[in-house]
Amino acid sequence: MKTCLLLLIVALHAGNSQAIDRCSVVSAIKNGGIIGIKGYTLGDYVCLAYRASRYDTSLNRSPTEYGIFQISSYWWCDDGRTVGRKNLCGLSCKNLLNSDIEDDVRCLKRIVKDPNGLKAW
């Protein structure tokens, strides 16, 4: 019985996953104009996406981290729940949970321009 329940939970989670392929990630990053900011490379950003989410755009790992880059709702997006949020990217965190990662990359660009850059992760 426990095995059946575990398999059901895994299947439901896998059904909600929206992983995109690496080439789509590379394309969005190239089109986003972020390569070279503070010396960061295409590889740095692709590695971040993989390590943060395994390219899963629907990932909401903790109550405050969203999307393919696991962007924090405290500083960067509005989830409607996080107390003291700043929303410096000016977008809803829900927008970071779909397969269109253009807005994720725009927000990433804003984050990278911040003094902490990729050290924010």
From TrEMBL:
GO molecular function, one term: lysozyme activity
Keyword terms: Disulfide bond, Signal
Superkingdom as given in the UniProt entry: Eukaryota
Pfam entry (one): Lys
Residues making up the signal peptide according to the UniProt record: 1-19
Residue ranges occupied by any Glycosyl hydrolases family 22 (GH22) domain in the UniProt entry: 89-107
InterPro entries the record matches: Glyco_hydro_22 (IPR001916), Glyco_hydro_22_CS (IPR019799), Glyco_hydro_22_lys (IPR000974), Lysozyme-like_dom_sf (IPR023346)
Family label: Belongs to the glycosyl hydrolase 22 family.
Protein name (record): Glycosyl hydrolases family 22 (GH22) domain-containing protein
Species in which this protein is naturally found: Hymenochirus boettgeri
Lineage: Eukaryota, Metazoa, Chordata, Craniata, Vertebrata
